[in-house]
Design a protein that fits this description.
Order of helices and strands: HHHHHHHHHHHH
Largest sheet: none
Helix content: over 70%
Strand content: under 5%
Shape: globular
Radius of gyration: 22 Å
Distance between the termini: 20 Å
């Protein structure tokens, strides 16, 4: 078991490490101001993000970004799972709203930024609203598909045991749909991070997206690259947190798939 975990960790770290080494070697002699060497970028990192302790940029700009992303994504997940479950359980409601859902989800998330800012201003509310609206659709559509795909035999069996509707929802429908709900949450998280950055670039006085744009406008290009590395690291950490939650919640599903492979 321990060797298996080490193998998984090794496989996860190997490619990023290889890419970092290739970036280091390929950019070692770079004289370009637009593509500085990785050594120069990493040299600028501590001063740019870690100086001044609690007043450092990683706290002043990173914490607001993480808070906006967390609130926006959590709101999107709660709304999408509730709506998706209701739509998935009622075929007539699904037939009524599905064309509208397909139409609205085709609208690119970034175009929401100027529209939402007209109604919500340029404060934190606008950024949270944009993240929520963008991350909502993948989770909603996957929840609908997951709920409508519940095995009808299991549904009829639950009814034959006279399980109440709330009990069927908690004990059967949501667990059966949860693999697809988490698939939607992974997509929604990626959309949420993109919209967090874009909304902070559009109108903000702090945040990681705001910092990257300020570095670019001031022609501080190594510092701008450090901001891109911070954003990538934030995306990686958010994905790992979601994977951890998914592993805990879907432990039964992982075990079921492993048993199927062995049989």
């Amino acid at each position: 078991m321990r060797r298996s975990r080490l193998t998984v960790v090794g496989n996860a770290v190997a490619l990023p490490l290889l890419l970092a080494v290739l970036w280091w070697v390929a950019s070692a002699d770079s004289e370009s101001i637009y593509f500085p060497s990785l050594q120069k970028i990493l040299g600028a990192f501590p001063e740019t993000w870690l100086d001044d302790g609690w007043g450092s940029s990683i706290i002043v700009d990173g914490v607001p970004s993480v808070a906006r992303l967390a609130i926006g994504f959590a709101s999107a997940a709660l709304i999408a799972v509730a709506l998706g479950t209701a739509i998935g359980l009622h075929p007539r409601l699904r037939a009524f709203v599905e064309p509208v859902l397909e139409l609205v989800r085709a609208i690119p998330g970034p175009v929401l930024v100027p529209v939402v800012s007209l109604f919500a201003g340029i404060g934190d509310g606008m950024k949270v609203a944009v993240i929520t609206l963008g991350a909502l659709w993948p989770i909603l559509l996957n929840t609908i598909d997951g709920v409508r795909g519940v095995d009808p035999v299991m549904t009829e069996t639950a009814r034959s045991y006279h399980l109440s509707r709330p009990r069927r929802l908690i004990a059967l429908v949501l667990p059966a749909a949860s693999p697809q709900i988490f698939a939607g949450m992974r997509q929604g998280l990626s959309v949420g991070i993109i919209l967090m950055v874009i909304s902070e670039m559009f109108a903000a006085t702090n945040g990681l997206g705001f910092s990257v744009v300020q570095f670019q406008r001031n022609f501080a290009l190594p510092e701008m690259w450090t901001g891109i590395i911070v954003l990538g690291t934030l995306g990686l950490l958010a994905s790992l947190v979601l994977q951890f939650a998914e592993t805990r919640v879907l432990r039964w599903y992982t075990g079921l798939r492993a048993a199927d492979h062995e049989s």
